[in-house]
Design goal:
With 504 residues, the protein is of the alpha+beta class. The protein has helices at 17-26, 38-42, 44-49, 51-56, 82-85, 173-185, 189-206, 248-261, 286-289, 306-319, 324-337, 350-362, 372-375, 407-421, 468-488, 497-503, and strands spanning 71-73, 76-78, 214-218, 232-237, 268-274, 280-285, 297-302, 427-430, 435-438. It has a domain at 173-184 and 312-502: Orthogonal Bundle (Poly(a)-polymerase, middle domain). It is 33% helix and 9% strand. The chain has a five-stranded mixed beta sheet, with helices on both faces. A two-stranded antiparallel sheet has the order 1-2. A two-stranded antiparallel ribbon has the order 8-9. 42% of the residues are buried. Residues 89-119 are annotated as: Disordered.
Length: 504
């Protein structure tokens, strides 16, 4: 899987100031520069298939390659070789883990049951899986046939913030504290690229079993609201339609879990199948830990396609106004500090918290965000083919708001809105509508304490808050934080900033 892994600790890079800056930004904060051609750096097939050699500086092991023309998109060079366009149903070949938790609501759907963590599903004794491109088993309700002609997965190039991304200017103490927290805790480009390298290698291995599958990196790692210790969420897509999560998904994941624990055991540790509402395989990537002291866990699900769509909806919101990401990160850290950011324990998921912040910014007298699904319905059509979804954020322009509120004022306003204005008993938080709307009269919403609408499938992302005393705790923390910040204008009174930054 990761060739030449024994060379991870060595460096043979020659000095080149121009490339040193590029590689340090995109690969590793400690990586020295390499004497590579521009084609070798940009070409995804070259970089990702030879990821460890490139990161370690083992350039002698890298194959020579022909320099091909570049296509420029959004002022950035993107190379796509002819091979990319000729694929037909295939592509190129914390110290201790925390207790397993329920999968975040962003990957859940209507057709699933109670969240329970159990042991791995038993596998047949025969451990060889050589399926053809049309797969059939007693548990599969349909053949898995996928035409990937000209389909570029979401992760074909190294990731970075969109061109022109800036941060707001802070003119007061509270705003400066929010920016300081954001800059210290936000996910670095090198963190994201290492997750992407893991995704690429795993996709190659999984395609030996499921030739037409695609593996997507999704969730907080990619939606713009990730931190340095965000989990890596992966979605394995076998077909672009729902599958039965209790039978098909669990069966497929049992095969993946077996692959990880046998063939890939030198690179993947602690792979476990979790029978959640949306079942997942949870694991760690050993190779990534060689480059970073931060241990990141991965969660892999099957065909939870709504997670792909909402990843890029949120990514568009994240980068269309420069106050959005710092504000969301501050609220997420606040919620985590006050122990109300854990859906498995009956409080709010990170996804619900993000939607709550976006909704607040949409409902201001002078909105800071619009409803993207109203303004650009075709771009966020739930029926859009998956290979087009990752392209959407680059097509949406920045939103110019007349609201000049500082980050500090917006944070205080967020707490004020949910402490005094929002009607928890009768209304639902809707980012899709950009307003609070009456709750539907259905089992998904009836007798629920918090209702947050999932923008694509219409489920309640906050349904984990099913006990009144947990809801009372959440409301009480919001009210107290509003009152303190309104009076003190100092983030340290609701979140010990220095200690939190050091512990990040």
């Amino acid at each position: 899987m990761f060739q030449n892994s024994s060379n991870l600790s060595h460096s043979h890079f020659q000095q080149n100031p121009r490339l040193k800056s590029y590689l340090c930004n995109h690969l590793s904060p400690n990586t020295e520069s390499a004497l590579l051609s521009h084609q070798q750096i940009i070409d995804p097939q070259y970089c990702l298939e030879n990821s460890v050699d490139l990161l370690s500086g083992n350039l002698e092991a890298l194959p020579a390659m022909e320099v091909l023309p570049l296509i420029y998109e959004n002022s950035r060079p993107v190379h796509r070789s002819d091979a990319f366009m000729s694929f037909k149903g295939r592509k190129r070949s914390n110290e201790e883990a925390e207790p397993h938790q329920a999968k975040r609501q962003r990957f859940e759907s209507n057709n699933s049951g109670t969240t329970v963590a159990t042991q791995t599903l038993p596998l047949p004794e025969k451990q060889i899986y050589s399926f053809s491109e049309s797969i059939q088993s007693p548990l599969f309700s349909a053949h898995y046939i996928l035409d990937l002609t000209e389909c570029v997965p979401l992760s074909e190039v190294l990731f970075s913030d969109p061109p022109g991304t800036t941060l707001p200017v802070a003119t007061d103490k509270l705003s400066q504290q929010i920016l300081e927290l954001f800059q210290a805790c936000q996910q670095h480009t090198c963190d994201l690229n290492r997750k992407e390298l893991c995704r690429t290698e795993l996709q190659k291995e999984i395609r030996k079993i499921f030739p037409s599958s695609r593996l997507f990196l999704i969730g907080s790692s990619l939606n713009g609201f990730g931190t340095r210790n965000s989990d890596g969420d992966l979605c394995l897509v076998l077909r672009e339609e729902p599958i039965n999560q209790k039978t098909e998904a669990r069966y497929i994941l049992s095969i993946i879990q077996n692959l990880f624990s046998t063939k890939l055991s030198n690179y993947i540790e602690r792979p476990q199948l979790i029978r959640a509402k949306v079942p997942i395989v949870k694991f760690r990537d050993k190779v990534r830990q060689a480059f970073s002291s931060i241990c990141v866990e991965f969660d892999l699900n099957v065909n939870s396609i709504v997670g792909i769509r909402n990843t890029f909806l949120l990514r568009t919101y994240a980068y269309m106004e420069n106050r959005v990401r710092p504000l969301v990160l501050a609220v997420k850290k606040w919620a985590s500090f006050h122990d109300i950011n854990d859906a498995s324990r009956g409080t709010l998921s990170s996804y619900s918290i993000v939607l709550m912040v976006l909704h607040y910014l949409q409902t201001l007298p002078e909105p800071i965000l619009p409803s993207l699904q109203k303004i650009y319905p075709k771009s966020f059509d739930p029926a859009m083919q998956l290979h087009l979804v990752p392209q959407v954020p680059s097509t949406i322009p920045h939103y110019v708001s007349k609201n000049g509120s500082s980050l500090g004022d917006l944070l205080i306003g967020f707490f004020r809105y949910y402490a005094t204005q929002f009607d928890w008993c009768h209304d639902m938080i809707s980012v899709r509508e950009a307003r609070a709307i009456p709750r539907p009269d259905g089992t998904e919403w009836r007798n629920k304490f918090i209702c947050v609408e999932e923008p694509f499938d219409g489920t309640n992302t906050a349904r984990a808050v099913h006990e009144k005393y947990k809801f009372d705790i959440i409301r009480d923390e919001i009210l107290k934080s509003w009152q303190v910040l309104e009076n003190k204008k100092d983030l340290n009174y609701v979140l010990p900033l220095r200690a939190f930054i050091q512990k990040r």
